Amino acid sequence: MSERTVSGPPPGAEAPRVGKLSPARMAALCASSIGRRDPRLLVGPGAGLDAAILELADGRVMAVAEDPIFPAAGLPLETFGWFTAHIGASDVAVTGVRPRHMTYSLLLPPGYPERDAKTIIDSVSAAAGELGISIVGGHTGWYGAVTMPIVGGITVWGFAERGCWVSPGGARDGDVLLMTKGPAVEAAALLAVIHRQLLQSRLAPSLLERALARTSEITVVEDALTAFGAGGVHAMHDATEGGVLTGIWEIAHAAGIPAACDLDAAPVPEDIAAVARELGFDPWAGISEGTLLAAVAPEAVASVAAALAAKGIPAWTLGRFDAALAKDSATSAGLLVRGGVARPLPEPAEDPFWALFAAR
Description:
By secondary structure, the protein is an alpha+beta fold. It folds into 2 domains: 39-160, CATH 3.30.1330.10; 168-358, PurM-like C-terminal domain (Phosphoribosyl-aminoimidazole Synthetase, Chain A, domain 2). Helix content is 32%, strand content 22%. The chain has helices at residues 23-30, 77-93, 114-131, 185-194, 196-200, 205-213, 221-230, 243-255, 270-279, 301-310, 353-358; strands at 41-43, 52-55, 61-69, 101-108, 134-142, 150-160, 176-180, 233-238, 259-262, 292-296, 315-321, 334-338, 341-344. The strands form 2 sheets. The chain has a 7-stranded mixed beta sheet with strand order 8-10-7-11-9-12-13, with helices on both faces. A 6-stranded mixed beta sheet has the order 1-2-3-6-4-5, with helices on one face. The longest helix is centred in the middle third of the chain and has 18 residues, at 114-131.
């Protein structure tokens, strides 16, 4: 047995990449560490795979996902509870499966007021109820290692009939890649909350208020279930850490089919562009929970876009999955047009959100 013990980084250690693992680090640390292998596991852990899919004895499938939830300082407690439920539920919804049950662990710092804990708990419950989700267990406690309220993990699951689901790896050659809402939805919303005082002196009040209001868009539950219900959707992915750029790479990597995308064809909403400009980050690379990426059969694009529009959800075509790009090693991950210049799709980099999140 190893004699190594739990500790912090050694003095002088180089700061590691912040945020989720890069695909290479994930492969090195986690790829073979999944306990007992289960033949019923249809979709397991991997880069860009939002949820696991398990085959049940009765022929149905179960989609299950896990996430931590970090609040932004200054975020209303009710909003923190709302997006706790929605962020967890989103990773199940992108499989086309309606989320039905959840557990979560609420971790609080010593001395944190019980009335505020109650507000968080009640708001998680209210949001779950609106989504049709039952909270069936979890954990709540006060701990010295915790400095602000966090949800250490939320687990959400749901069930579907055989064949009535998709995974991020399901894109097919020729599919069209759709994007909802725009890039950096979460980054713009939470950074507007954190850096509100600074942005008040730099942005028009209407732009700042629009960015702050995007906290209510940090979900793809309705986006995903609406798109899937319209038919013709082969894959969906929630553009979380690393934003749309990472999301494109992940959905293409999971499918094994490169994506050719034109970012110039999709506008960055004015308020998001303004927040990104003033805080100095690339909106296409910032965390974007709330942005759905969907691989859609060409003949179904119009009906999926119309279904989304009927729900008030804007959508744009970003590009197309093109297996021919794999023949050239330079474009084997994909091709990206930006500012009129075509470049190979880069592997995911560290999300600029985290440095700005920590700078509060």
